Known about the structure:
The chain is an alpha+beta fold. It contains 3 helices and 6 strands, in the order αββαββββα. A hairpin with a 6-residue loop joins strand 4 and strand 5.
Amino acid sequence: MAVVAGVVALVVAVFALRAWPLINVVETGRTPEYPDITPRAYRMSPDRVFDAALHAVHRLPRWSLVSYRPETGEIRTEARTLVFRFVDDVEIRISTLGESSVVGVKSASRVGRGDFGQNARNIRAFFVELDRQLGSTSNHD
C-alpha cells in the first residue's frame, strides 16, 4: 500500500510541476508564460484608479498594505498564501497614457524557484477586485 501511495504522490508531483512554469516572478506584459496577464487601461483619472487600487488591496484576503505613494502611483503590498503562509511581494503601478490610466502589476515570491502559479493568481485576483471597485470599466478586452 505504501508503494502505491508513493507512486501516486510522484505522479501528482510531476503533474503539478508541469502544470505551471518554473518561475517565481510574474509581471503584466512581461511574462511570456502568461500572455493573458497584461496591463489594464481605464478611462478615468489616475487619482480615482489609485484610490480604487488601495481599496482593492484592502478587500483581498491575506493581502497587507506595505506602502503607497500617490505622487508616483506606486502601491506595495504583501500577499500570503493560504496553506503555508508564504509571502509574495506585489507592486502596483498606476500611470497615465493619453486620456487613460494604466495599471501594471508585478508579483514575486520571496522563496523558491517555482510558485505553482500563485503570482499569476495574485495578479488576476487584484484585477478582478479592481474592476469591481471601478465598476468593470477597464479596456482590457
